[in-house]
Amino acid sequence: MAIRTLDDLDAAGTTVGVRVDINSPLANDRSLADDARLRAHVETLDELLDRGARVAVLAHQGRPGGDEFARLEPHADRLDELLSGPVSYCDATFTVGARDAVEALDDGEAVLLENTRFYSEEYMEFDPERASETFLVERLSSVLDAYVNDAFAAAHRSQPSLVGFPSVLDAYAGRVMEAELDVLGNVNDQPDPRVDIVGGAKVADSIDVVRHVLEHDLATEVLTTGVVANVFMLAASVDIGDASAAFVREEGYWDQVERAATLLDGHRDRIRLPLDVAVERDGERTEIAQDALPPREDESVLDIGHDTIEAYSEVVADAGTVVLNGPAGVFEDDTFAAGTRELFTAVAESDAYSVVGGGDSAAAIRRFGIEGFDHVSTGGGAALRMLTGEPLPAVDALDQ
Ligand SMILES: Nc1ncnc2c1ncn2[C@@H]1O[C@H](COP(=O)(O)OP(=O)(O)OP(=O)(O)O)[C@@H](O)[C@H]1O
Ligand SMILES: O=C(O)[C@H](O)COP(=O)(O)O
């Protein structure tokens, strides 16, 4: 791949469009509930501002119709606090107001343009050539000299602001993009044995990862946690109870049970299922051994139990590399946080080279103040896609 980086960009005095991913959890009043994704881009944005560029920042927030579909003014205010140069907010993205705001910038100043997804074309997927003809790319590129993509976490989307600009402007990877491609692109070359821990709720994506790492012999073992483990237990005919089975069905994961069963048929000795699980009983955490399941009718499996944490931690202790994706349980609730907190801590404190993917996983790490991972990815779906060896459209578009 021949992807240019900021090292190749003569930034001083040029107007640069920088696509970032600052899609963040919001509080009820629409303020930012977490600014981690904004902080991740400080290095790229500060470098450009310090080198005298004029920076037009492009980003999305939420999905049309969703609860977190919102204006980017709070994001602009926070970036203004975080960055070395002033950041203004413009409530347009590519129309005349936006272009005027970009043209009014001085060297070392930035403007955050409005949520790209306020425009219908931005929520469609195009090939890069066609994306370069969309209104957003066509209009905005007329006031830009170069384009930087730092939005690794959105790189699995083939949307105009992510894939359209490289056809019409010199394009570069920002520092976040560069680091993510470096780490996730080389994870298969890290020390053996490799152990993948798959949890959380993105069941289909996680099963893609399990299949890829087992079929290509990239991982020696896969440890399942979270909803992913519940699906694998159902596939192994473990009775996780009506409530958890109903959750799997309601969330649309039932098709995945069959896929999990196929993987178990081929690789049973390399896929570990929880030895015990935690449910809520009389308002308290209660742990149940796998062979004592099912739980009572209304009880859901919400975490892995302590025997599982111990067994998985022993596997981690012997690993050369650990790739961790998704929380082990409902970590947001203290009652069911132990699996995530203790297993993640075991990984962070092990001698293994450790990589973590997923927005919720990163949030759990911050919540529990766990330190010691080699890399915590900014990407959820994008990181999973890379771990399955699939190309990322926005990365391919940068490859000029
Ligand atoms: N046993 C369980 N039952 C129900 N929900 C669970 C269970 N285990 C984990 N979860 C939930 O899964 C969610 C996180 O899963 P997800 O796959 O989204 O993680 P991620 O990949 O780290 O994050 P992101 O999707 O933001 O990138 C959390 O909200 C957690 O509460
Ligand atoms: O949070 C993410 O995973 C990225 O910002 C992409 O968001 P999307 O899944 O709404 O495209």
TrEMBL record:
Monomer. (2R)-3-phosphoglycerate binds at residues 37, 117, 157. Its EC number is 2.7.2.3. Transmembrane segments: none annotated. GO terms for biological process: gluconeogenesis; glycolytic process. This is Phosphoglycerate kinase. Belongs to the phosphoglycerate kinase family. GO terms for cellular component: cytosol. It catalyses: (2R)-3-phosphoglycerate + ATP = (2R)-3-phospho-glyceroyl phosphate + ADP. Keywords: ATP-binding, Cytoplasm, Glycolysis, Kinase, Nucleotide-binding, Transferase. InterPro entries: Phosphoglycerate_kinase, Phosphoglycerate_kinase_N, Phosphoglycerate_kinase_sf. GO terms for molecular function: ADP binding; ATP binding; phosphoglycerate kinase activity. The lineage of its organism: Archaea, Methanobacteriati, Methanobacteriota, Stenosarchaea group, Halobacteria. Substrate binds at residues 21-23, 37, 60-63, 117, 157. The keyword Nucleotide-binding applies.
